[in-house]
Amino acid sequence: MSIYDVQIKTLQGADADLAQYRGKAVLIVNVASRCGLTPQYTGLQKLAETYGEQGLTVLGVPCNQFGGQEPGTAAEIAEFCDVNYGVTFPLTEKIEVNGAGRHPLYDLLTQTPDAAGEAGDVKWNFEKFLVDRSGAVTRLRPQVTPESAELTGAVERALA
């Protein structure tokens, strides 16, 4: 099974077809509206705008597991992202990324180790998983910002 086979819904509740990202690059990020890292939405939107035509999709995955920092309803999350950050990239339904209720997408993603070789649970909001055109995954921890050379370089390699 790959991420392209996983069933997940959009923020609006429709089925999201992850198979549409096969052969493209997708940056999957667990997001939250009330986190100290929430300003990363600005950089994520910029990545989507800068690299979108080259085949990158940023996919925001709301999660309320870290300090209750994404308590809103789907409508509240959508409005927050639009009004405060002008987010145009797709958002999924709110899910759990750790624990017994972990969504199958994150069952797959969390098997990928980070640069230090550590796999397993997501550490905090805004952890990033970059899936390249071939389906290989690179994991970047929350402190790696969208503007960083580490992430932009990984995106450029994923699109090559």
Automatic annotation (TrEMBL):
Q: Which UniProt keywords apply?
A: Oxidoreductase, Peroxidase
Annotated signal sequence is: none
What domain of life? Bacteria
Catalytic residues, per the record, are: 35
Q: Does the keyword rRNA-binding apply?
A: no
In the record, what terms sit under GO molecular function? peroxidase activity
Q: Which GO terms describe its biological process?
A: cellular response to oxidative stress
Gene3D superfamilies cross-referenced by the UniProt entry: Glutaredoxin
Q: What InterPro entries has UniProt attached to this entry?
A: Glutathione_peroxidase, GPX_AS, Thioredoxin-like_sf
Task: Please state which protein family the record places this protein in.
Answer: Belongs to the glutathione peroxidase family.
Concerning PANTHER family, the annotation shows: GLUTATHIONE PEROXIDASE, THIOREDOXIN_GLUTATHIONE PEROXIDASE BTUE
Name this protein carries in UniProt = Glutathione peroxidase
